[in-house]
Amino acid sequence: MVLHAHTTMADMSTLLYFRHAKRHLALYAGPIGVALNLLLMWLVVKKSTPTMKSFKKVLLLTCLTDLTFSAMNIVFVLTLTVAGDTYFCIIEGVFGHLPPWLTFVGYDAFLYFVYASVSNNTVVVFYRYLVVCRSKTLNACLFMCCMGIGWSLILSYIFAINYQFMTESADPDIHSKLTAAGYPSNGSFHNYVSCRVNKLLGFSTYAAVPFTTIAYLAVIVMSFAVQRKFKRLSSLLNTEERRFHNEITMILWVEAVTPFITVCLPIYYDISKLIISNMPFNWFAEFIWLLTLIGPSFTAIFKLISIRAYRDYISKSIYGLFFKRKTTMNVVQISSSQHAQRSSVPKRRSNNVTVN
């Protein structure tokens, strides 16, 4: 998600507004995402129905990925921006601006998780395609091997990008470019990493774009194949199986749309911006960052609402908590009134004896 600094005053004002909102949102969205995905993982392990058995490892993997990404966003809040012909990565977070070596750590983690969300979703859809269309189930070893293929491609891409940053020559105009990007600098600000755009353009054009495009084309094709097969088999499935497959279909579409918005669109926009330098909406990357921050929380809430076994457990737990509390209060009130009535009976008898 790259932001270009050829901005008008209105664009710069909007840019700084979203950048400021991003810093504050991360402090809330990160912990909420961690808590929701921990709850979801517990429900997957403890409350999944027998019908859901084959998809438990899929749900656990996506929950673990979202949980880790949410935790990372508390510490590493990235700003990726282009000023002139130079690409900058600046990281903030709960500890403020981070030094260059930690900036590399945060940047690499960011690249890994955003692209892993694309590859993981592709493997998950492929797994469901095998189950529904081919009547095959991958064991844990084969499932992780499929995941490993995507992860190895991502790590290779990250290594190549890091090499370009590390071999970058000194730029005498670097601080004026930082100022143009919204980070005023008199030469004392060094908490960033930078690289010339022309060194990275080839990797984005011939690696990032094909990777995401092929992955989403595969997701679309396999999803339609699953839907066609599912319609043919729906009459042979019981009510619980049909409901669960409908729930999984909705979840997988949400899992696919989320990284498409937060990963694919920014990549396509970045490539277009590098080719057409006067494209509008320079604040687009910062706005997308807000969606990226809330993405893990949104998908967790959607799963909790969509899957009936989890939804019923949560609603019953909440209802039981308040109903039990209300019942306990009523019992205490009844006991108190009965005790008061008992204690008043001897006194009335005592008074009658005294009068006689």
TrEMBL record:
The chain crosses the membrane at residues 25-45, 57-78, 109-130, 142-163, 206-227, 248-269, 281-305. Pfam families: 7TM_GPCR_Srd (PF10317). Its main location: membrane. Coiled coil: none annotated. It is a multi-pass membrane protein. The keyword Transmembrane applies. Keywords: Membrane, Transmembrane, Transmembrane helix. It is found in: Membrane. InterPro entries: 7TM_GPCR_serpentine_rcpt_Srd, Nematode_rcpt-like_delta. GO terms for cellular component: membrane. Belongs to the nematode receptor-like protein srd family. This is G_PROTEIN_RECEP_F1_2 domain-containing protein. The lineage of its organism: Eukaryota, Metazoa, Ecdysozoa, Nematoda, Chromadorea.
